[in-house]
Amino acid sequence: MRISLFYLAIFALCSIQACKKQSCISGTVLDAKTGLPIPDATVILVQQYSGSSATLTSHLSTDSTGSFYYMADDKTENGISIKGISKHGYAATNAAEIREEDDCRETTVRLEPLEGRLVLTLTNESGTTDPVYVQLFNQCQELSGVFDGISTTDPYPLLLQPGESRVDTLLRCLADSSSIRWKFAENAPWAGTNAFFAETTDPVSFHLKY
């Protein structure tokens, strides 16, 4: 009888451990305008460890149905939070209404599409043979320490011949002004501080002549 009680206690303990739920989060990322799922969106999650100030940052991508799922380990103290979500062609966001489901969290996030277009024209008027880098900054794409708000097209650096022009169309928010940064460089273009900035509120076009 004692042996039976002993094994019963062991079985109960193991069952409790097996039933212990770990923190997890799942969600779906949708287009705010069409309601369609957004595949390959980047989801950045942060989890806090018990008994310390240490955190773990994880990067996920949504699947073909716009869904993501993450299970934390058993050392997580306060669950998992969303640090940011982004996808090319959409405004980045960290806003997410999270529903509690036992130890798990569920959320549906709707990203606003970038419906603005900026036609960027570059013209080599000086005849320089230096390659040039160009980036377009959008406020709605910048999320503190998460997404840098940069729109760009390939290939860069550009090496235009004297008198040659190139036209690119870059996505941007309709309501936001933009900063265009450009610099001559062979590589590592943004090392240092001698990049040039140009502000524009024109939602249609910008012509950079150098």
- The fold-level CATH name of the largest domain is Immunoglobulin-like
Order of helices and strands: HEEEEEEEEEEEEEE
CATH architecture of the largest domain: Sandwich
Q: Look at the structure and give the CATH class of the largest domain.
A: Mainly Beta
Instruction: Give the N-to-C terminal Cα separation.
Output: 92 Å
Tally the beta strands. 14
Q: Report the sheet with the most strands, covering strand number, pairing sense and barrel closure.
A: 4 strands, mixed
Which percent range describes the beta-strand content?
over 45%
Task: Report helical residue fraction.
Answer: under 10%
Quick one: overall form? elongated
Number of helices: 1
Question: Which segments are poorly predicted (pLDDT under 50) over 5 or more consecutive residues?
Answer: 6-21
Tally of distinct domains: 2
Task: Give the overall average pLDDT.
Answer: 81
Query: What is the alpha-carbon Rg in Å?
Result: 25 Å
Strands of the widest sheet, in order across it, are 4-1-7-6
- The class by helix and strand makeup works out as mainly beta
Put the structure in a nutshell:
It is built from 1 helix and 14 strands, in the order H-E-E-E-E-E-E-E-E-E-E-E-E-E-E. It has one helix at residues 2-19, and strands at 24-31, 42-49, 55-61, 67-71, 76-86, 98-101, 104-111, 116-123, 132-143, 147-151, 165-172, 178-184, 196-200, 205-209.
Structural write-up:
With 210 residues, this protein is mainly β. The chain folds into two domains: 23-111, Sandwich (Protocatechuate 3,4-Dioxygenase, subunit A), CATH 2.60.130.10; 116-209, Immunoglobulin-like (Sandwich), CATH 2.60.40. It is built from one helix and 14 strands. A four-stranded mixed sheet has the order 4-1-7-6, with no helix packed on it. Strand 6 (98-101) and strand 7 (104-111) form a beta hairpin. The longest helix is centred in the N-terminal third of the chain and has 18 residues, at 2-19. The model is unreliable at 6-21 (pLDDT under 50).
